[in-house]
Amino acid sequence: MARTTAESTTGDQATGNSRRWWVLVVIGLAQLMVVLDATIVNIALPSAQRELGFTDANRQWVVTAYALAFGSLLLLGGRIADLVGRKRVFLIGLIGFSVASAIGGASPNFAVLVSARALQGCFGALLAPAALSLLTTTFSDGKERAKAFGIYGAIAGTGGAVGLLLGGVLTEYLNWRWCLYVNLILAVIAFTGGIRLLRAGKPANPPRLDIPGTVIVSLGLFCLVYGFSNAESHPWSTVATWGFLLAGVILIAVFAWWQGRTPHPLLPPRVVLNRFRAASFLAMFISGAGMFGVFLFLTYYLQQSLGYSPVMTGMAFLPMIGMLIITSVTAQNSLVPRIGPRPIVPVGMLLGAGAMTWMTALDLHSSYAANVLPPLLVLGAGIGLIFAPAMSTATARVEPRDAGVASACVNTSQQVGGSIGTSLLNTLATSAATAYLVGRHHTPAVLAQAQLHSYSTAYWWSAGFFLFGMVLCGLLYPSGRPAAAPEQADAEAAPVHM
């Protein structure tokens, strides 16, 4: 009888382990859908512009509308997940995101396309923090948590590059509209799995919603992202640029002041005052700024300077994805449990800076194997050493009632960092190209060199971002690894059944 009971217990544990890994598949699909949508439309833009007839000045809004809605509403989305239940918000986010994608794919004109992209961002702001908080609450065992976050960090890091590859394939062989329709396929799979596998994650005593804080931080993040995005088409000296940036900084400062005084803060100070979490949020912000910038400029370089097709451009990023996955899983499984994130994340930042510096040497005669591939591999290794440890550390030892908002902070840091980095680098690159052309005849050769000069300027600034991140993370991260929460400590003490 005892043997039968033991066998039953072992079977239940095996079933539970199997279910958790299928949950990771569902969550990973949702995260991939959200992250790749930040880049998948980039390659489709020229085709969409020709068909719908919008201007060069307006095309940036197809990308910016998504980033504005997503970045400014993420904290609210994370708190809603804590309030009404993570599974419910996750499924609502999936449905809304897929409906918005369908509207965007069927867009008859520019206005509908931009509105659909903004709607995608709104539902993405529900989906992304709910997904990460579900991962945080599903994997409490130390070894399983390390593996899960290694895989999740790899997905978060490679999503942008996957978006470029998938966007190229769909645009070249089907139609630009499939860059949006593809979300329907991913959403149906994730929704079906979510209904069957996910468990409700609503705390017993959910916190109340901080309405003033929600309004203040959403407006503040909107102003920051909009201000940097506006700098692409307006000088820094115009009110439309510096006015929004100043307003964003003031509103974020007011939000921080308010969170220390309201009884029900949207972002409780206890979440961000932990040094491990604060350093992880900054690591995601800085690496997001540097990484998404290189996706943009290296994509232009491969297509416009070296003459690559959209598909070949996407395939050029595949080795970087492979390296990122390897280092991400290795760092989270083997390195962080032993030595903590302090030595690992700064080394990742240093590798990122080295890769960006290496890319400044690219010219019109560079070859992929000798000149493009090596720095891409180094960049993939660096990002892998940053993302998985930072994501895992940022959500470690979070109280269940704060899991959603802590997860939202991770996504907010990456998304806002990517939006600001891309906009700022694009502005600096454009200014560098304009300055290069002053006093020169605009021959094809000179124009090509101006482009290379603009890319090199962006790479140098990206290298500076990563170096700043290396110093900051080296100073902020405490030595060792975060102490396990009581429930995690108990799980780590128990035997692991795989």
Describe the structure.
Helix 1 (2-36) packs antiparallel against helix 7, helix 3 packs antiparallel against helix 16 and helix 14 runs antiparallel to helix 15 (368-394). This protein has 18 helices and no strands. Residues 1-15 and 484-498 have low confidence and may be disordered. The protein folds into 2 domains: 12-198 and 266-483, Growth Hormone, Chain: A, CATH 1.20.1250.20; 210-265. The radius of gyration is 22 Å and the shape is globular. With 498 residues, it is mainly α.
Biggest sheet character: none
Count of helix runs? 18
Order of helices and strands: HHHHHHHHHHHHHHHHHH
Q: Which range does the strand content fall in? A: under 5%
Provide the low-confidence segments as ranges.
1-15, 484-498
CATH superfamily of the largest domain: MFS general substrate transporter like domains
User: How helical, in percent, are the residues?
Assistant: over 70%
Q: Gyration radius, to the nearest Å?
A: 22 Å
Per CATH, the architecture of the largest domain is Up-down Bundle
What's the layout of helices and strands?
Blueprint: H1 2-36, H2 40-52, H3 56-84, H4 86-105, H5 110-138, H6 142-173, H7 178-197, H8 211-230, H9 239-259, H10 269-272, H11 275-305, H12 310-316, H13 318-339, H14 344-359, H15 368-394, H16 403-437, H17 444-476, H18 486-493
Helix pairs in contact: 1-5, 1-6, 1-7, 2-3, 2-6, 3-4, 3-5, 3-8, 3-16, 4-5, 4-7, 5-16, 6-12, 6-13, 6-15, 8-9, 8-16, 11-14, 11-15, 11-16, 11-17, 13-15, 14-15, 14-17, 16-17
